[in-house]
Structures are given as C-alpha cells and as structure tokens.
Amino acid sequence: MFTVDPKDPTPLYAQLERAIRTAIATGKLEPGTRLPTVRQLAVDLHVNANTVARVYAALERTDVVETQRGVGTFVRTTPSPAAVTANRERELERAISRFIPEVSALGFSLSDVITYLQRRIKQEKEVHADHKR
Amino acid sequence: MFTVDPKDPTPLYAQLERAIRTAIATGKLEPGTRLPTVRQLAVDLHVNANTVARVYAALERTDVVETQRGVGTFVRTTPSPAAVTANRERELERAISRFIPEVSALGFSLSDVITYLQRRIKQEKEVHADHKR
DNA sequence: ACCATTGTACTATTGTTATAGTACAATGGT
DNA sequence: ACCATTGTACTATAACAATAGTACAATGGT
Questions:
Q1: How distant, in Å, are the alpha carbons of A14, A62, B20 from that of B9?
Q2: Exposed end of chain A (fewer CB within 10 Å): N or C?
Q3: Best interface-test mutation with B: which of A21, A102, A115, A116 has the largest number of B CBs within 10 A?
C-alpha cells in the first residue's frame, strides 16, 4: 500500500507521513477510505507499531484523518479548516519559492516541472478509471 | 552555493551530500572545481563544521571528490551522461514528492499549483524584457 | 455480557544526528 | 623558517529516531 525505505536517511515516520499525505492529495486515497490498522501497517512495512501510531496521531492532529477507537482510521472528507485561511496564497508562494531553486538546481525549468505535474494528474485519472471497472 | 533546510526532517548531512552530488552530476560543479572550505560552508549554511566535514569525508570515500590537506577539496569525476539524467529525474521526483503534500496541506490541488507556476513563468519573461531595455 | 479489534499511552533501550570545543597534520605562501 | 589555512580526529553533550514490550480504553459484533 505504501512504501518506506530503511536505507533512505529520511526518518521512517517522515517517509510514511509524506507517503500518506501524498496518496490523499493525489486522490489515491479517497475521503472515507479506511487506512490499515496500526499493527497491520507496521507488519507490512517492517516497521515498529509505535512509528505508525505516531504518524497516525500526527495526521489526526492536522485533521487529515479521523480516528475512532476500536474501529479504525479514516481519510477525512473535508480539507482541514485550518487550511482554509486567509494567508493560504502567501503560504503557497512561500512553498513555491522554496521549491523552485531546488528543481532549478537540478537543471529543470518551470515548464519541465509543469509537464511532470501534469503527468501526475494523468496518473491519478488512470487510477480512478481502474477503480470504475 | 548550496542549501539545506533545517525544518526538513531529512538529516542535514544527507541534504548536503545530495545537494553536492547533484551539483556535480548536473555539471554545475565541473571536475577540478574547488569546494568551499569545511569551516566556510558551515558558516554559510548555519551548520556545524563537523557536519560538513562528515559529508566531505563521505564524498572522498566514494571518490566523488579529492581532498588535499591545507589546500582544499576538489571535484573529481564526472559521472556518465546516462547516470546524470537518471539521477536528475530521480531527484526531481523526490523534490515533487516533498512538495505535493506541502501544498495540499494548504488546500491546493495540483492544477492550482500549475496555474501559479505558469504565472511565475510570465513574470520571468517580464523580467527578461526589463533587462533588455 | 463477553471479547476480539482498534487506537492510545507508557517505560526502557539502543543507535543516530547535530552541536560545541579542542587539538593535530599537512600544505602553500611569505 | 614561519604561519595562516586546510582537512582530520578526537571528546562530550543533547536531542531525536526507532525499537520492544506492556498495558489500557473505546468500539462493535456475537
């Protein structure tokens, strides 16, 4: 379902949190979907249960998922209220401003990046189409 | 010269090593080029000198740079063009993977982001036009 | 009412990351 | 010969990451 790489120096909890957020952001996980249990995901990823629990707790705190004891953890239907603030756009500008030098250091132009992002969107749609079959 | 982000959970040494390897791989740093001194780079990046030294040592071990005591650290090899493009694309994917959850946390879709990036491209062109005057 | 399942909350331990500080070793310029 | 500069090699310390293990709390199905 998700993957983490123990050889990557990035902390496991950070890799997993990023993976889940991305899956939700790109629509791979639709609102209402139930995530694997803490213990099950720990087994699948060969990771400690505490690490998974920590990630779920972080996602819960930021309103990305909703957890019900004894039931499970679910993708939230609505984007977090915290995200819907007045300075959203300013934050986006900041995020982009940090992102651009990063990719331009790799020798990519903004047009290149747009092409890649559009490819991602296409991949999303294909996944959706698969689900409908 | 390089950048590291202390807010990124990725270890500083890993960020820096990746940045330097990428700079070399993309030709931003040609063979023979001298890297900043351990102490200077530490000051520039607001990072401990030990951390920089550790990175230089790692690059030395893998024959990416050559160090001469009292002189400096120099870029050694240029990888094959195939390796360059492979690394470039991999790093771009990484950068995008870090970027997506960041902007989606702000409630923006990939399409929104593309719109903003296209706006940036327009702004760039305007700046270019200004320079020509 | 029972109980398996789920998330949560601890303790304890080990290894990693980053820091500050100090000292030494080799080189090149003066 | 001197000495500033450079990389290297420690020590010590603090914070963080990941693990194992145990126990508890809430839920839903039987």
A1: 7, 17, 19
A2: C
A3: A102
Query: Which residue, among A42, A14, A45, has the nearest Cα to B14 in the 3D structure?
Result: A14
User: CB distance B96–A113 less than 8 Å?
Assistant: yes
Distance from CA of A68 to the nearest CA of B (A): 22
Which tens digits make up the pLDDT trace of B35-62? 999 999 999 999 999 999 999 999 999 9
pLDDT digits (tens, 9 = 90+) for A12-41: 999 999 999 989 888 889 999 999 999 999
- Structural tokens at position B132: 């020509």
Structure tokens belonging to residue B106: 């702000």
CA distance A67 to B1: 44
What residue has token string 């079959």?
Answer: A133
Give, rounded to a whole angstrom, the gap between the first and last alpha carbons of chain A: 20
User: Which among B3, B10, B92 is the nearest to A116, CB-wise?
Assistant: B92
**SS3 string of A45-105?**
HCCCHHHHHHHHHHHHHCCCEEEECCCEEEECCCCCHHHCCCCHHHHHHHHHHHHHHHHHC
- What's the predicted TM-score (pTM) here? 0.85
User: Do the chains contact at B110 and A117, CB–CB below 8 Å?
Assistant: yes
Q: How far is A88 from chain B (nearest CA, A)?
A: 6
Of A88-97, A100-109, B2-11, B122-131, least confident by mean pLDDT is B122-131
Q: Which of A119-128, B28-37, B123-132 ranks highest by mean pLDDT?
A: B28-37
